[in-house]
Write a structure and sequence with these properties.
This protein is mainly α. The protein has a domain at 50-143. The chain is built from 5 helices and no strands. Helix 3 packs antiparallel against helix 4 (89-116) and helix 3 (50-82) runs parallel beside helix 5.
């Protein structure tokens, strides 16, 4: 009698599972999920287009360059304003160091733009124009400082 009860318990576990619920496998009989079950949408297999990646990278670099130019302009204007008073020498030196660091970052972005725009003459011309403008601004600023 005791072995018969244990055998029934094992059968119940097999049919209902440990938590007492009927499992999906036994619900369907074949282990396949029901057709009304939500499924994730499949995407088409798309390959990355290298031209699109380069174009996207150039946009990011140009935006970065614009940010650097804005910061260089801000620092140059701040330095120019402080040059009117000789008591601001310490602050001018600190801002000049910041300007040099920002200039280095600007040059890195400029060089990277030239690498990615190796086939695009218009982008390269624009990059050189912006670089030359900023170089002249830097020279004019440091002429004022010295």
């Amino acid at each position: 009698m005791a072995s018969e009860t244990a055998e029934n318990d094992v059968l119940m576990l097999g049919e209902r599972g440990l938590n007492g619920r009927v499992s999906r496998l036994e619900e369907n009989g074949d282990g396949i999920s029901p057709p009304d079950r939500p499924r994730r949408e499949t995407r088409q297999n798309t390959r990355l287009n290298s031209e699109e990646l380069v174009a996207e990278k150039l946009i990011k670099l140009k935006n970065s360059r614009s940010g650097h130019v804005g910061h260089l302009t801000y620092l140059a204007n701040k330095i120019s304003a402080l040059l009117t008073d000789n008591s601001n020498i310490k602050m001018v030196k600190e801002l000049s160091v910041m300007f040099d660091r920002q200039w280095d970052r600007f040059e890195l972005v400029h060089d990277e733009i030239l690498v990615y725009a190796s086939q695009d003459e218009l982008t390269k011309e624009n990059a050189f124009r912006v670089y030359n403008e900023q170089s002249q601004r830097k020279l004019d600023l440091f002429d004022k400082i010295l």
